[in-house]
Amino acid sequence: xxxxxxxxxxxxxxxxxxxxxxxxxxxxxxxxxxxxxxxxxxxxxxxxxxxxxxxxxxxxxxxxxxxxxxxxxxxxxxxxxxxxxxxxxxxxxxxxxxxxxxxxxxxxxxxxxxxxxxxxxxxxxxxxxxxxxxxxxxxxxxxxxxxxxxxxxxxxxxxxxxxxxxxxxxxxxxxxxxxxxxxxxxxxxxxxxxxxxxxxxxxxxxxxxxxxxxxxxxxxxxxxxxxxxxxxxxxxxxxxxxxxxxxxxxxxxxxxxxxxxxxxxxxxxxxxxxxxxxxxxxxxxxxxxxxxxxxxxxxxxxxxxxxxxxxxxxxxxxxxxxxxxxxxxxxxxxxxxxxxxxxxxxxxxxxxxxxxxxxxxxxxxxxxxxxxxxxxxxxxxxxxxxxxxxxxxxxxxxxxxxxxxxxxxxxxxxxxxxxxxxxxxxxxxxxxxxxxxxxxxxxxxxxxxxxxxxxxxxxxxxxxxxxxxxxxxxxxxxxxxxxxxxxxxxxxxxxxxxxxxxxxxxxxxxxxxxxxxxxxxxxxxxxxxxxxxxxxxxxxxxxxxxxxxxxxxxxxxxxxxxxxxxxxxxxxxxxxxxxxxxxxxxxxxxxxxxxxxxxxxxxxxxxxxxxxxxxxxxxxxxxxxxxxxxxxxxxxxxxxxxxxxxxxxxxxxxxxxxxxxxxxxxxxxxxxxxxxxxxxxxxxxxxxxxxxxxxxxxxxxxxxxxxxxxxxxxxxxxxxxxxxxxxxxxxxxxxxxxxxxxxxxxxxxxxxxxxxxxxxxxxxxxxxxxxx
Length: 772
Description:
Organism: Piliocolobus tephrosceles (Ugandan red Colobus)
InterPro entries: Actinin_actin-bd_CS, CH_dom, CH_dom_sf, Spectrin/alpha-actinin, Spectrin_repeat
Largest sheet: none
Keywords: Actin-binding, Coiled coil, Repeat
Protein name: Dystrophin
Number of helices: 27
GO molecular function, one term: actin binding
Oligomer: single chain
């Protein structure tokens, strides 16, 4: 049964490979095992699947075949295809089981997983087989004759395959006609034909391959995936949960047991091989140095007494055990061939690695990465050169024994020549690549250094001019200078990229020059670094200064605008107050009240005047610009003059009103009117004084003082006495015979006119007393 499944897989997988070749326009294969042995057809298949051009070895020896297969295996590994059991020798030797395993892994990746990756991601499932089985069961649940629980025995009678197609395309055939067919082979043939001619699916399986007691699971999976690709892909979570509840197989099949055992054995071998072959004991060499290979020419000779490969040139520390075990043991052709194949396989792989490095970039950072990558590659070559020497030495000894036939000796000689020439070509090419990388890298780095030096020179001149230019002389000029500084900061940020690339320079030195080769470069970098740091420091300090001055200047300008607007407003208010030609006493009192309020406002605004002086002094001390200082002094002097003019206008208006009152009402003297205005003003002064006492004292500055009578208590006492006297006189008037005559006649106009002025005066003074 095991051989039968292998035959089915061979036939099915061959059909699948040829179906792919038909898509790519490639020639078909006939024998899956023999046609893939040289690796060329395997690379053809992967070219079509990956869309990449994969070059092949031109030779036809076993070594070339191994190299082709190794290249194919690397492509599969790069595409995350699982290759646990498979090595290049297995395919070259035509191992049936592992060749089928290789093709199955390719099918599983490009046929199964690629087709189902979207639905797997949508359902958050990683088991493609479980999703495929859920899809089949969900599609065939309305067919009572069908119960699919696996991808083997559930398909033998042909009903499941027909039901799967009919569930999605009932228009293609009549279901009852399929059920009535007696033969499973007939039902399978019907399904394969419908799929081929109606759905475009290649006939990868034959009916007799499925109509057995235990059909091949992989072949069934592959074919059902092809159906899944062309039919509606709908799988519910319930269907997946239903599959998870299905009973598991009671035991492991014979084939699965064999594969599990083989996999464990192979994994163990891989682990041992890695531990023995790739463990490094030598300490790594310093970075940023070039490592020169020994300039040794490997020439083969038939003289057994002369060794053409001096051991001091060929041995690598980690390969001593490998070389000594070959040379010290009995030399035979089989051991030599095995060792030669391993070294040639590595050598061809190393050639591919060198080729894959690509062209040298013109970007300094990319070239650095290329340099370090090649440095590691060169160290790997150094580690393997001892193995190459040992194989050549072993071949010479083998020829020297005289036990080989003429044909065998010729073959060994050709093999040694091939190994020697390819190693020498690889060595020369790798050193040339290293030299070119170093040359390009140093050219790019020196170019960056020159560009940085030129940029620093220009920027230093630029900052010198900015430093010499005085700040201002007005706010708009300062804003322009701030914008210029922002442009400088942006230029520094862009230049930072070049500076960063030069902080990790790669310098190649040899043993003779040693550290002296880097001394001049280090000094150059130090000078450039100091110049860069000075520019950055100056830029930062100047930015802080500009921001401080800009903020202070804006505040001063804002206060100037507010103060100027206030002065204009108060000047207009004074001009609108009537000082002569009063219609009555109320109009006169209204003017007096307005003047008093303006005087109080003036007293309050003295703080703003002081604030302007303070802001001006703070700005000028930071700015240190004589022209700006003169401009500010002139501006504040103008404000002070406007202030004085306003005060004089208030005093003049007050005097004019007093003169008008004296003219119309002789009983009210000018002093009385002035005292009334002064009392209102004094009340506002007291409020201001209390507010000032709660604040910290302002710094001493240039001030303009306005004289105000501060003997409030004495004046209050006088006012209270006068008010009491007036009330007493008023009471006497109300009790006099004259007032009785007025009351009897009902005419109070004359009396009212006499009392009006006194009433107005008492109203003002009572208001002041309440506020005090």
